[in-house]
Amino acid sequence: MKLLQQVWRANDTWEWIACLAIVLGVLFVLAALRFWLIRAVGKLSKRTDTRADDIALAVVRSTRLWLLAPLAFYAGALALDLPARIDRLFAAIAVAGGTLQVAFWINSLIHGLLERRIARLRTSDAESVTVLSLLAFVGRVLIWAVLLLVALDQVGFDITALVAGLGIGGVAVALAVQSVLGDLFASLSIVLDKPFVVGDFIVVDGLRGTVERVGIKTTRVRSLDGELMVFSNADLLKSRIRNFKRMVDRRVEFTIGVTYQTPPDKLRSISQWLRDIVKAQAKARFERAHLKHYSETAVVFEVVYHVLDADYNLYMDIQQAINLAVFERFTREGVDFAYAAKTLYVRPAAATPEGGRSVDKAA
Asked: 308 and 220 in one domain?
């Protein structure tokens, strides 16, 4: 009470009037600025389809005048002759109010950035919605915690012990649940980087199937045989993942072997036959066909072409059509396919000095 009387006596009437005028003036300017920004950004938001102005409007609307009022009182207090303790109190309250207002702005910004993305994924990818919502929640908690500590520090609380305790507790919790946190951050990487999404056909270390669900800790894949395979998210990202759903086209390579009894003129023509057969397919792009090498049982030709679609069934249809056309053409031209076999050649018997006969065989 004595302190208030001291303050009242230390300042004359005109100083109090100036203080009141500054407080009211700052409050009016802040209120008018908020009203003008909401109106201007609102008009801009109605004329455009971009997300940036919608987010800016939400941030402006989150402005709380009661949190900015301490700034007006602190500005008015500068016109008075106040004791150091009261001056520090006004400054601390102003900083605390401004800090909380910044927290509201950042919270609104996070909500605006993620709201439309979550709404778009809600019907198609519920797992991504869960992870994004969790990410937004963690971000808000961290922001509020940091800004609350700043506000407490400005008010005069000693936050050193509190920060140390939070740090030690955070390290202990992180060590206890490090595997869970590893899978959590891996799930965030999958959702944000999208090496695959629900519905993609992937191959992981020889295991193949369709992705059914991407969870916080595990990813579930349905194999071709019907069983459900569960992968840890952290282990999954450490593996080599082949995503066939993202395939633009499919490169196909196959070989055909013919017998060594095939006439040379037929051997020269086989590459052209194969070229014509592949080019006859509507959704295939021919690359090459060559006599590649001689094996123990066959003269081997290699053919390479591209299927202009990632669909596996289409690839099998084209390969089947090519195989049938090759069989028909080779049959018509009298060219035999090679297969694993050995021919035994027997020489006629020859007389020996003792009057006997011998037989030489070669395989």
From this structure: no
The phi and psi torsions of 14 (rounded to 5 degrees) equal -65, -35
| Structural element, H or E, at residue 249 | none
Structure tokens given for 287: 């690359």
**Tokens 């500005």 label which residue?**
75
- DSSP-derived secondary structure for 238-270: HS-EEESTT-SSEEEEEEEEE-TTS-HHHHHHH
C-alpha–C-alpha distance, residues 66 and 64, integer Å: 5
Q: Are residues 48 and 150 in the same domain?
A: yes
Contact 223, 204 (CB under 8 A): no
Residues 127 and 201: their CA atoms lie apart, in Å, by: 17
Q: What does the pLDDT read at residue 363?
A: 40
Q: Give yes or no: residues 92 and 233 share one domain.
A: no
Q: Which parts of the chain sit beneath pLDDT 50?
A: 358-363
Measuring CA to CA, how many Å separate 230 from each of 186, 195, 214, 251? 15, 17, 10, 30
For residues 236 and 259, membership in a common domain is answered with no
Q: Which domain holds residue 294?
A: 250-333
CATH number of the domain that 228 lies in?
2.30.30.60
For the chain, the 3-state helix, strand and coil shares in percent, each to the nearest 5, are 60, 20, 25
Boundary residue ending a domain (243, 259, 281): 243
Task: Write out the H or E segment, with its range, that includes residue 41.
Answer: helix 13-47
Instruction: Enter the pTM of the model.
Output: 0.48
Domain count for the chain: 3
Specify the pLDDT at position 154: 65
| Structure confidence at residue 362 (pLDDT) | 43
Residues 210 and 311 reside in one and the same domain: no
Query: For residues 321 and 109, what is the distance between their CA atoms, to the nearest angstrom?
Result: 58
Look at residue 23 and tell me if it is in a domain: yes
Sorted by sequence, the CB contacts under 8 Å of residue 56 that are 6+ apart come out as 41, 45
Looking at this protein, which amino acid is placed at residue 316?
M
CA–CA separation, 147 vs 326, rounded Å? 74
DSSP 175-237: HHTHHHHHHHHHHHHHHHH-SS-TT-EEEETTEEEEEEEE-SSEEEEEETTS-EEEEEHHHHH
Which DSSP symbol is given to 295?
Answer: -
